[in-house]
Amino acid sequence: MTLLEVSRMQAFYGRVQVLEDISLSIPDGGAVGILGANGAGKTTTLRAISGAVRSGGDIRFDGKSLRGLRPDQVAARGIAHVPEGRGTFSDLTVRENLRVGAYRRKDAKQVHEDIDYCLDLFPQLQNRVRSNGSALSGGEQQMLAIGRAIMARPRLMLLDEASLGLAPSTAKTVYKAIGRLRQDSGIAMVVVEQNANLAFTLVDSATVLEAGRNVLTGSTAELKGMDEIRRAYLGG
Ligand SMILES: Nc1ncnc2c1ncn2[C@@H]1O[C@H](COP(=O)(O)OP(=O)(O)OP(=O)(O)O)[C@@H](O)[C@H]1O
Ligand SMILES: [Mg+2]
């Protein structure tokens, strides 16, 4: 079953149109990568899905249109956005940040279990549960941002450059954890990445954006075999 179907999506900042024609299809439990140079429209694509920028075209989630919904309403449908720059709360502790992710939930016992799951997935956060967000390293903030999204029990997670600014070993750790999360939970994922090597460890297929359009879409295996992808995104 298709969980998210984006067709002919456009997006605008004020009067400026930055997405021209974006299509994406994600099966339930699937993971799709979005690649592309700086300014190609990757972040805006995620924002348009989340309802944070004005969009045109069609966005359907679980068969229903997301047209006209506010970000909180999109989140309530089961879509969690892990934004570029992470967006964790610097004056809340790690545990409080995780609780914020669960604010819509009434199942206190499972919320507690999910906090334990996040700390098991990201052991680095364990001795930091009482630390303020501001005291975390970039990698720890990224882990916390993903944890906060997990706490919403979403059906779809939108991940924006989870590796940005992290040491290569930390980026790998983060992607390994996301891979485990995918296996454990079956949460579907849209994975925006400049580091295609990392993205390809996680996703089943990917699309390349240029100037607000898809220019190439294929399975991970197909894309890995293409010279232009190897040159532009895989360093060789
Ligand atoms: N708040 C904004 N107001 C106006 N224009 C914006 C805004 N945010 C982004 N843009 C423009 O929209 C286009 C797409 O930007 P977007 O952030 O989606 O790119 P991106 O692919 O995520 O790039 P990066 O790899 O640098 O994160 C760019 O031309 C950018 O300058
Ligand atoms: Mg971006």
Characterize the structure shown.
The chain is an alpha/beta fold and 236 residues long. The protein has a single domain (2-88, 153-233), classed as P-loop containing nucleotide triphosphate hydrolases (Rossmann fold). The chain is built from 9 helices and 10 strands. The protein is globular, with a radius of gyration of 17 Å.
What is the level 1 CATH name? Alpha Beta
CATH topology: Rossmann fold
Average pLDDT figure: 95
Structural class determined from secondary elements: alpha/beta
Number of strands: 10
* H/E topology pattern: EEEHEEHEHHHEHEHEEHH
What is the helix content? Answer: 25-40%
Distinct ligands, ions and cofactors found in the model: adenosine-5'-triphosphate, magnesium ion
Q: How does CATH name the architecture?
A: 3-Layer(aba) Sandwich
Q: What strand line-up does the widest sheet have?
A: 6-7-8-3-9-10
How would you sum up the global shape?
globular
Main beta sheet: 6 strands, mixed
What radius of gyration results from the CA coordinates? 17 Å
Number of helices: 9
